[in-house]
Amino acid sequence: MRVMSWTRCRGLDWSHSLFCLTLLLWTRSMSGLADFSDYLTRIITSHSAHACDGQPLRLHCPRHSTISIQSAFYGSGEVQLCGVDPHPSLRAHNHSCSAFTALQKLLSECQSHRDCQMPVNHLLFGKDPCPGTTKYLHVDYKCKPTEHKKHVVCEGETMVLRCKPPRVLNIYAAVYGRRLGHTDTCPSHLTRPPPFECLNHEAVHLVSKSCYSKQKCAVPVSNQTFRDPCFPGTRKYLSVIYSCVPQSLLRVADPNIVSLTSSPSVGTEKDLDEPFPKGSRRPDNSGAMMSNSLLTYAYIKEHPEMAALLFTSSVCVGLLLTLLAVSVRVTCRTHWFRDHRLAPKLGSPTVKYQEDDEDEDDDDTDEEEDDHEGTGRSLLSATERKAIYGWEEVTYVSEAAERAERIERREMIMQEIWMNAYLNGSSC
User: Fold this and answer.
1) Direct distance between the N- and C-terminal alpha carbons of the chain, in angstroms, rounded to an integer
2) 277 domain-assigned
3) For residue 413, pLDDT beyond 60
4) Which of 133, 143, 268, 374 lies at a 20 to 30 A Cα distance from 260?
5) Which residue(s) pair with 48 in the sheet?
C-alpha cells in the first residue's frame, strides 16, 4: 500500500513538471511569434520621431533592416511640440520657419544605419532659422529590410512597378537625379556628368503617393514630374527601393490604406479576378496562405536561431504531450486491472482454494472463506448473488473431481512404493 501511494505521488509530481515545462516552452514560442509580428510591423509601417533643442534624437530599426529617411523638419511650426515659447513676441514675428538643410543632414548622419542618435541644436543645420525661438526636429523614416528590390529608370521613360497578387507595393526610398561615379547608369553622349551629386530625395513622396499599397503603378520619369536638381542638360534617372508585402498584413499595419486599395485606377477587383475563371476550384484564401508561406520563409531565412528554437520547442512539446498521454493510459489500465483482480476475491472463494490445494486444514479454510463470502454477498445485488451461487456450484463440483483424482493418484503412488519395497525385501 505504501509503494502504491508513493508511486501515485511521484506520478503527480512528474505530470506537474511536464505541465510546467510545456507551459514554459509555449510561452517562449508565443514570445517568438510576438517578436516576429513586431518585426513585420516595424518594417512595413512608417515611423516618426521628434526632439526639442538640447535633447537627443534617436532613430532605431530592428535587425536585418536599416533606416530610410522620408522627410525631416527643423524649426518652429504651428504645432507646439516643445511646450510654451519663452518669447511669444518673437514667435508671432516668426510664425513658421525651418532649416532647408535638415533633410540633407539627416541623410548624411542616419541613412542606411540601424541605429542613429544625434543632439538637436541649430548649429548642426547652419544658420539659425528662428533666433530666440524654441525649435524642434521632426523626422519621418522607414525601416528598410536588407532583402529588397531596386528599380532604376532613365529620364524620359516610364517606371512600372508591379507585384504578384495578393501582394502590394511598399516604397522605402526614391531618388531622382544622378549620383557621383555612376557613369554607366543612363549615360549621356552629349554632355559629361557633373563632378558632384545632384539628387532630389523628395521624389519618395511622389512615388509613394502613386504606388503605395497598389499592385501595379506607372510613374513618368521627367522634370515635369520631379524637381530638377541638376544643371540643365544633365541626364538623370529615378532609383526606387521597394518591396512586395501581403495586402492583408499591410492593411492590418496601416488601416488608412483601405480607400487607396479600392481605387479603380490600378489593380481593381475585376482585374484581380481575371486570371481565375468562375469555374475554378481555387479557394478564396489561397492568396493569404501563399503570403503566410512567404512570410514564414522570409522569417526563417532572416532569423535562423529563432526558427530553430521554435522548431525544437514544438518537437519537445509534442514529445512531452505524447509521454503524458502514455503515462495516463498506463496508469488508468493499471488501476483497472487491479480493481478487476480484487473483485473476484470479494465475490467467490476459489482463489483461496487454488492457493491451498495441498493444505490439509480444509475446515479452517472453509470457515474463513465463508466469512469473506458473507461480506461480499452483503455488497451484491440479488441478480449478482444468483450468478455467483451458480458459479460456486460449478466450482465446488470441479474441485471435488480434482480432489478425487488427486487422492486416487496418491493411492496409486503409495501402492507402487509399497510394491517396490516388498520386491526389494523379498529379493534380499
Assistant:
1) 62
2) no
3) yes
4) 143
5) 140
Tell me, yes or no, whether 309 lies in a domain: no
The reported pLDDT for the residue numbered 2 is 41
* 196/214 same-domain check: yes
Contacts for 396 with CB less than 8 Å, ≥ 6 apart: none
Question: Is 25 part of any domain?
Answer: no
Task: Tell me what the mean pLDDT of segment 158-177 comes to.
Answer: 94
Residue 188 covered by a domain: yes
CA distances from residue 326 to 24, 74, 319, 321 in whole angstroms, order as listed: 21, 67, 10, 9
Query: Are 228 and 249 in the same domain?
Result: yes
pLDDT digits (tens, 9 = 90+) for 287-324: 444 445 556 666 676 667 777 888 888 888 888 899 88
Residue 129 burial (C-beta neighbours within 10 Å; 0-12, 13-18, 19+)? buried
Residue 58's alpha-carbon distances to 83, 142, 250, in angstroms, are 20, 13, 25
Same domain, yes or no, for 239 and 159?
yes
- Look up residue 110 and give its three cell numbers: 542616419
The grid cell for 11 is: 506520478
222 plus 206 within the same structural domain: yes
pLDDT band for 383, please (50, 70, 90 cuts): low
**Cα(67)–Cα(145) distance, rounded to whole angstroms?**
9
CATH code of the domain covering residue 104 = 2.60.120.740
Please indicate, yes or no, whether residues 205 and 185 belong to a single structural domain of this protein: yes
Domain of residue 103 covers 46-77+97-145
Confidence at residue 258, expressed as pLDDT on a 0 to 100 scale:
52
pLDDT recorded at residue 35: 58
